[in-house]
Design a protein that fits this description.
The chain is mainly beta. It is built from one helix and 21 strands. Strands 2-1-11-10-7-8 form a six-stranded antiparallel β-sheet, with no helix packed on it. The longest helix has 7 residues. It holds the Pfam family FHA.
Length: about 200
Amino acid sequence: MPKMIMSIDGVVIKEIQITKDRTTLGRRPYNDVVIDNLAVSGEHAVVHMTAEGVFLEDLNSTNGTYVNGKAVKRQALQPEDVVEIGRYRIKYLAEAPAPGAQEQASAAPQAAAQPPASPQAFVKVLSGAATGREVPLVKVVTTLGKPGVAVAAITRRAHGFSVNHVDGELRLVLNGEPIGAEPVTLQAGDVLELAGTRMQFVQA
């Protein structure tokens, strides 16, 4: 599955899985990828995933969208391409199974790099501009929130999920109680509140 790694000043702040046909990037809170910086337009760019490949399109942004240092309007993305939006750098990665991976897994399942299977789960946004949006918990670690304000991490474990506070002055609140850096096991129906946004943990 294609993904993009976002960084600023050399520090990685977000990993973005490209799972939809259309993934929007911009400053407004309703974008799929919110980049809260004045150099970024409200609706800055969009990533299209098609049968022909993955394309980046600039949405007539004020400061432009760059791929490998070159301003673009619409550009097919290649693995390791670097997209620049304001001060943010976003590296595009196209993941593919390694040749022979299936045979290796069959021969030595105990050495598989994949984490143990966990129940399917997602976080549903209950308040704010993104109300109703569902964030699937498919990665080993899924981060939520805004860097510098409030960031929490939900970790996928062998038999469930845990959550902990990562960054920011505003603490994560779980079922009305603030929690810290120590992981807390999540239960189906738990309600999280992060920087004023309420979310519910839903597990199949």
